[in-house]
Amino acid sequence: MKNVKQLFINGLFAILPIVVTIYVLYLVVSFLDNILGGFVELIIGKSIPGVGLVASIGLIIFMGFIVTNYLGSKLVKLGEKLLEKIPIISNIYFGVKQIINAFSIQGKEMFNKVVLVEYPRKGTYALGFITGECKGEVQDRTSAELINVFIPTTPNPTSGMLILVPNEEIIYLDMSVEEGLKLIVSAGIVVPEYK
Questions:
Q1: Which of 105, 137, 167 is the last residue of a domain?
Q2: Is 193 a residue whose pLDDT tops 70?
């Protein structure tokens, strides 16, 4: 009975990621199909499965084209300024935007390297991301070469704190920024392979 229980648990952990992935894909496809599927049905007078999905993908590509040109990016910035003035909606919009940026290419480009620093005290290490070299008055008033290190919080890597660490006290890691983000979001459960 003990072996059957262990086999069941092993099988469950093996199949769960596949089932969850299929379910999430199903939800996304259904959601995209339902967004514009109703509008297309009103226009042509009948329901065609998948036409909402195709229309949604077309809309997403069109929006990508709009936001990448000069006029479109100005309109988006203007729209965001208007959203900032609406209390609850601005919190939701900018919160979602921060999370998406953290996992997008733009968010990964903000971080240069994954590092370990002794924080919050000696002998305790925190995973961080280098955001650049310290400059200006802060650097001028210290004798050490300071590096800007962003220490994210788990499981939301968009919040955290900036600490300024002397370069000689930083341990540089080989893991990619994406692997570092996965480690933080998973609270240390997803550990990248190291050879």
A1: 105
A2: yes
